[in-house]
Structure formats: structure tokens, C-alpha cells
Queue: 3 jobs
Job 1
Amino acid sequence: MSTGVITLRSLDARLVRVPLTRPWGSGVTSVGVVATHVVRSDGAEGWGFSWTPQIGAEAVHALLVNDIAPVAVGGPGEPGEGWRPMWQHLHEAGGGGLTTIALAGLDLALWDAAARADDASVSGWLGAQREAVRAYGSGVNLHYPIDDLVAQAERWTDAGFDAVKVKVGKPEVAEDLDRLRAVRAVIGPDRALMIDANQRWELDRATAALEVLAEVSPAWIEEPLRAEDLWGHTELARRLAASSGIPIAVGENLHTVHRFDEYLRAGAAQIVQPNIVRVGGITPFLGIAAIAAEYGTAVHPHLLPELSTQVARTLRATPGVAEPMVEDVEDAGFGDLGALRDPSPVTVRDGYAVENAHVGLGIRFR
């Protein structure tokens, strides 16, 4: 690894709009990527990104250009060293959300530069703990007609996934049940079937709905309530423990180490799913994973398989806790969307995500 004091010489950011092949509903037809580039005082370069579906990319770009770059340049050039001071600098604009999404653009580029300086991949630089990471088939499919949902489930099984995830939250729970029964009939009794409500329910409705949906043996219920509702998740977890025992998974809309700690301390979640970009990059993600290990809680990174796989490979196994899984949303990977300049650093095949040879993160946008 590099020695001596390394500072940041420059940080640049540009906005890239990536159309989705399969829209995530009428309101989400693209994802916004803010591609970042850093140069360190030792000449090492790194590339990273911030990301957000449809909304907020322009604001993230403005934060990087106007509020992060002027402070970051001249500061620490090694990953992790300047993360907390920069988070504190941005805190007047919010402790999480747009600020941490923007901060990820700097953090990922610094990790990329550090690994590239040693001609290594980020997972190799951190120390990979496993050759491959189990992946599950996923889709933003609540708006799919049931025939299309069944066809998607058939594609997942044909691709070798042993776990799949389906959206729930139709106006009537009977329709959710019909859809899940149809998926269960395709995937069989031995594959895991996860369900995701995307924060659509209130506490009593979630309780009633899950009593019905327990019939299909969900492996978890993801985001049953608004992410801000810690008390509601705590109470729902208590109710589920006394009935179906369905675990609660949260994290894609929690943005700080502190929020994850609060959820775990309260017993409000049994699985956590931090989105590496939304929490501010690899630096805070590793902190969240360490806290989850203390609580004996599984960590399954949310979305972004090209990035999530690399970091998931570095997480140490915790006895008695499921190893990390990564989410592969159909036709939504950066490589699938043709957004990358180089071949994807990650391939998903036969239900596992594996890394291809590359240096750094290997994620550079066209």
C-alpha cells in the first residue's frame, strides 16, 4: 500500500442519465448516475459514482461540485480518512439522503484510486473472504400483470437462482396472495421467496396482510412500513415473532450508521440491506456491517450488484448468521444497460455473483 501523506489534487463530477430497459413503473424510467473522477497527489486516479433512481441526480451533482469538491481538494487522499469530517461539513443540508448519496461519489473514487495504485481490485485490497456471493433474482414488478410476473419467475428459475423477490402492496391482499401463489407454483417449495412492500403499509394493515401472506412462507418482508417509523417496525417485529415469525428486512432507505444501530438495538429488523451508495460509500457500509455482526444480523447489500458483490466478498463470516446475498434486478445492472465503458467487473450466473479480472472497482461510465 502507499506510504507518506497523500492528499486529493482534484475531484470532478458529471451527470449521466441511464434509461431503464424495464421501467420501474410509470414514474421511474431512468436512473441518474453522477460519475466521479479523482486525482491524488501521488498521481493515482480513481473513478466512482453516486446513483439515484429518476429523482435527485441534479441535486447530488450540485452537492459534489459546489459543496464537496472545494472542501475535499487538498484534504485526505486515502479512503476513509476524510469521510466523517466531510459528513459533518454537509450535515446542515441533512444527515443522510442526498448528502450521503453525494458523499458516496467521493468515497468510492478514493477506494478505487487506492486499489488502482497497488494494481489490485478493491475486494483484493480489502481482503476477499469468499470466491462468490449468492445472488437472488429480483424485479420491480408490482405493476406486472400476473402472466408477466409468472414469466419472470420462470426466467429466474431457468437462470439458476435459488431465491427470488416479488413486490407486494396491491389494494387488496387477496391479489397479492394470488400473485405469490403463482410465483410459488413456478419456483417450487425449496427456493426462498422474499416479499417487498416498499413502505406501502401502515402497522395494522401490515399485520393483517402478513397473516394472509404467511401461506407462501416468505423468507422475509422488506420495508413493510415507512423507513422513518422505528416504533412501527419494532411493534410489527413483536407481532410477527408471536405469529408467523416472518423476519423484517430494512435498510435501502436508512442512510447512516446511527439509524441502523437504532433499528438493531430496538429489535425492529432481523436483516439489514444497506445500499452502499445511499449510506455514503464503502467506508460507512463497512461500519454498518460491523455493527450488524455485533448483533448477529445478516447483511444483504441493496441493489447495484456490480458494486455490492465486490464489497460483500470482503465481509467476514459470523457464526450462525447467513452469509451476504446480493440483489440482481432483471435487466437493471449497469452492464445490462450498456452504461459502462469497460466490461462489467461482476457476472451473475447460476445464482451466484462472481468477479471478473479488473483493477479498482472496475466501474467507469460511458
Note: Residues 28 and 54 are 6 Å apart (CA to CA).
Job 2
Amino acid sequence: MSTSPSSNELPRRRALLKGGLVAGAAAALSPAPGATAREAAAPGAAAPVTNPLVRNRADPHITRHHDGHYYFTATAPEYDRIVLRRSRTLRGLATAEEAVVWRRHTSGDMAAHIWAPELHRVDGAWYLYFAAAPAHDVWRIRMWVLENPHRDPFRGTWTEKGRIATAWDTFSLDATTFTHRGARYLAWAQKEPGADHNSAVFLSRMANPWTLTGPQVRLTTPEYDWECAGFKVNEGAAFLRRDGRVFMTYSASATDAHYCMGLLTADADRDLLDPKSWTKSPRPVFASDDRTKQYGPGHNSFTVAEDGRTDVLVYHARPYKEITGDPLDDPNRHTRVQRLAWHPDGTPDFGVPVADGPLPDLRRRR
């Protein structure tokens, strides 16, 4: 989620949201015990996934855990809390009860711009990575971590582990973590001192789930026109491995219809901390489409279909192009999913953001 240099005040945003623009924004509900009642009553595989999957939820992150559940979190348009849903099916996330597991502080740090949470299971505990800013300076955005040792992220206690310290104390957000060849990494977006951009994507190894160690290297910075529309932004990294290669998607430009996704590719046996290991696509791989009426697709994550082997792209987009005022004040970035295809050369085929409505079977064709 990129920022605007304007000094929009949070009370104005809240007034806008309370004015009825947010249809179905969820309040705190009881933690979901698993599948919802509606899901349990539905006829299993016969019911398709329908886009948008979850309305008014941007920067979506869906992970399928070994307990058989899909876990969902995303940015709430009020920017004031972290929510979780879970379901045994992707389509069940649409109606799953939503729990608020953490709320912003009322003063001091972590009091504003609660953005882009991601839920990860690391070394027997759950971690939530997210961005936040202090009440007195709402654009001084940094990355923070919560920890919950309970096996069920809807139970137990979420403890604030603190801010992720990077090489510079500058604007930073969109943390995501993954392991490769036994090492744990963190990727994130950050404003580099002296650079003429809003944010670039960096990578570092981790000493533990909230501490970086070793070199912090820049993998991509805005350079093409499609990365610099409105704002010069690279952010929202996500990783996928397949057939000896590592793929990193990222989002670029302002959060309106210009928002789109780029791609970096590396051989899995190369040093991921060497920028020379990565090849950058010169064109966006996923962008707005007038034919399907989907605009500003991006800030994605990846999951798998219920068959456990079909890759699924998770992202947000708006169903219209024209926006009045700051795009960050517009709450209608909805969570969407679609099957991720693959080109014959083994690279991902993102296609176009599909139109709203029921989706074809997400499972891989036999």
C-alpha cells in the first residue's frame, strides 16, 4: 500500500468511511471455530468461488496451514485494526466470521495507518507482520511484529515484539517472510535515503522472526514508466518457488488504476541476496483491464486450491477506474482470487484480473 505525500487527516478518513462508503465492513466477531454454518450447509465442491471473495479488504494475505484451514488477513479500510478469518475452503472465507485480534494504540507508536498484515507460522508460533505509524506523525510508517505461541491464532495472547529495525530509520512497510534452503528471509518496501522514489524492495536474512541479520540488499527500485505512475513505488513483495526457480512479485505505482504487478525471477541455486541473481521483467505481469472492469490489481499473495497443488493468485482490485480524492480514502479495494497458470517455459502466467462473478474450478485440470 503506497502513500500519498499529502497530509490527509485520519478523522477525515473516518468520517468518509462512516458516511456509508464501506459496505459490509466487519466489526469484531467471535473467533471462527472452522467452517461457517453456511459453508457446512453448502453442497461441498459444487459451490464455486465468487469474486470478489471478501469486500472492502485490501492487501490480502491467505495461507493454507497444515491443520487444513485457510487463514485470511488484510487491510481494513479504517486502518485501525488487524482481522483474521479462517475456513476449510477458499469460498468459505467469504462468509467466515471475522475476529479482531489486535487494535491500534490510541497514542504513541502503532496508532495510525495499520496496513498490510500478514500471518505466518514460524518455529511453532504465529506471527503477524504489519505496518503502523505514531499518532503524532501518521506518515512515519514502520514495520512491526506480533507473536502468539498458541497453536490456534484465534486463541492465546498476541504480544507486541516491537519494530523491525532496518539499516535506515525511514518509511518502511509490507514485510513478508519465507524460507529458502534452510534460511529465513524478510522482504519489505522502504524509502532509501537520498533516492528519488517512494519505496524500493529489499531483502535480508533473519536472526529470528522479528530481527534482521547480515546484509540488507535492494532487489528492485522503480525505473520503468509503469512503476512510476502517480508515485515511484515498488512494494508488496510475494514469493513463489517452482521447478528450480524463485519468483518474486511486487506492486508498483499509485494505488489507483495505475497500480499493477511486476516480477523478478532467480534460479533457486543462486544467492538470493545477490541482486545480480534476479532478472526483472520489463513489463507489468498483471494490470488493470477494461474488458473485465478490474482496476489497480496488486499487493498479492499466493495460496493453493483445495487439491493442495493448484496455485492460486490472491490480490485486491477495484471495480471502477475513476476515484474522487485520494485513492487511499476509497475503501473499495476488494479481495479477489483466481487460478494461476504457467507458461510452457515454466514462468507464471497471470493472465488478466477476471471479471466479478463465479469462477471456473480453481483446481488443476487432470
Note: The longest helix spans residues 10-21.
Job 3
Amino acid sequence: MSRNARLIYSSDYTNYYFNAEHPFNQRRLLLMHDLMSMYGILSESDILPPRHATDEELAMVHDSRYIQFIHDQGHSEAELPLATSYGVGTEDVPCFANMHESASLIAGGTLNAVEAVMSGLAEHAFNPAGGLHHAFRGRASGFCIYNDCSVAIAYLRQKWNARVLYIDTDAHHGDGVQWAFYDDPNVLTVSMHETGKYLFPGTGNLTERGDGSGYGYSVNVPLDAFTEDESFLDIYQELVTKLARGFKPDVILTQNGCDAHAYDPLTHLSCSMKIYQEIPRLAHQLSHELCDGRWIAVGGGGYDIWRVVPRAWTLLWSEMTDQPLTDGPLPEAWGERWQPHSELALPKRLFDEPFPAIPRREEITQKNKVTLERAMMYAPVE
């Protein structure tokens, strides 16, 4: 493995901004960038700037009328008729100025990551602003306007005819990506998420396995609420290893939402920072074992922007660039810079102190094991 990786990054990503009360806040990327830099694992030469995805590129997965509406809405002072029909002007996706430009920059950033990896400029690339996996062909959903993950997969399929393994470990089901490729046997979508019984978007059931020739190529593992590190990682390692070796992808695309952490205010899983070291480690290993290192990573959910997201994605970048970090105090300068802006006490160390055990631990663990067995029943495992 080598430090041949690129971070797709620009402070302009923060223009994707709904309002001050909204839980989705790309300010988290500024904290992440500073933490990586203060650890000394990020230099300017590692960074590639994003570009705007063209309308034609977006139209690989989005309806052209929807793209035009998003452009028009972002340049209108008032909410346009039919806004809610397109999923905007809602509590989840409020209207804001220049919606198209800010969302297309994120999608273009993920396309730049694809280009970097597939052209051989880098083995790996990470677009932390990406991972907007809930958007559909003609409708925004779940804080997501354009689905950069789906656009990237469509681009990989059309330009390189690549077999794509998509691994989504966000606490919310990767619904938009799943449905976009539900009948394609050359795209294996794998989503580990909190059960939809109590959490948006309410999908990601075991029975969602794909359609037609794509049957078996959509794999969902809905985890029980309050799942902890050990159960999460046991499921993840067995699931992803067997599926990756059975599918034999040309490229791996990982969505790295970090809202399965116990601190996240929107979800009910109980994991610690430990999983955010292990998740990219296995993806990294499998990329070199199966597809010459071709690994594209994007961000995703993560709504504790102060205590969780910066540490989680710094650990991902650490793994991607072969610059391992061990537990210890976070750089003092990072805390000094950002603590005045946060009502929460920032963490002092890279990893968490042990959390109290969940009373139903054994029951949850056994339930998750049964779910895994059922999830892999029709999947292309090793």
C-alpha cells in the first residue's frame, strides 16, 4: 500500500447550507481539514479542488426537469410552485440561494475523485462533502439534492464499464443509490444501517434484494437500535469480505457516514470512534486485494459536527494515506481554535473512553447475527 491518495476539498463546500437550525452543516469539513492538517497528515499537494458537475452528468441519474427546477429555485427569491413535489421547500430540504451550484459542486467533487482513481492519478480519493445518498431521480430527500454517489456509479458504468461495489455504513439506509441500480447486476449495493422501524427513510429491509437480473445485488443489513462496536464490526467484516470476494469488483466506492456514533443526535446506534478506524481499514485492504487499489470514498451523515465528524474522517484519511494514528491527545491548537465556537466540550483524545454497556447487549448481538445470515442468503458471496 502507498500514500497515493487525493482529498477532494474546498471551503466552498460550506455554501451547501440550509439554515442555522438545520442539522446538516458542512462547517464540519472545516473542522476536519484543520484536524488533518494539525496532525501533519495532510498537505496542499494532497488536495484536488472540486468542479461543478455538468447538467449532462447529473442527468445520468436525475431527470432533466428536476435539474432545471433546482437551478430555477436557487435563483428565485420565493418558493416556486411545485417545490414540495420535487422534495424541496420542506423541513428536510429547505430552499436556499444557489442550490444548484452548491449541490453540483459536491457531485462534481465526487466525479473528480472518480477521475483521479480511474485515470491512475491516484489509487484512492476521498470527497468528504459527498455521500448524499438519499436523493432520487426527480426528488430531493433527506438533506440531499443531487445524489453524487449515484452519479459517480453511473459515470463508472458508462465511461469505464466498471463493476462497482458500493458499501454504505451510514446509520440511514442508502435508499437513493439502491433504487437507482436495483436491476443492475454490475452494481452491488451494500447498506448497513439502523433498522427503519424508527429511523428515516424507513427502508432497507432484508426483502429489498434487487429486481430482474439484479436480484441478489442489493444487500441490506438493518441493525437493531443500540448496536455497539463489537456487533457492528463483526457484521461488517464478515459481510463486506464475503461479498467483495464473491462479486470481484473493478472499483470500490464507500459511503462513510459517521452517524452510527453514540453521540449522534439523529440516530439510535451506540458505536464509538473505534468503528471509524476499522471501516476504512477493511475497504482499503480489499481494494488492493481485488481491484488494484481503486477505492473512492465519500462522506455522508454525521450530525455531531464537533465531536464525531472531524475525528472519524481524519481516521479515514489516515488509513487511506498509510499514516496510522494511535490514540492520544488531539492537537491542542485544534481545540483552542474551535472550542470557542462550540457549546459542546470538544473531545481531548482521538478515541473515546469506553461507553457504559447496553443492558440488551447479548439480545442485540444475537438478533444482528440472524439478520446477517438472512441478508446474505441470495447475495453473491465468496
Note: The chain has a mean pLDDT of 97.
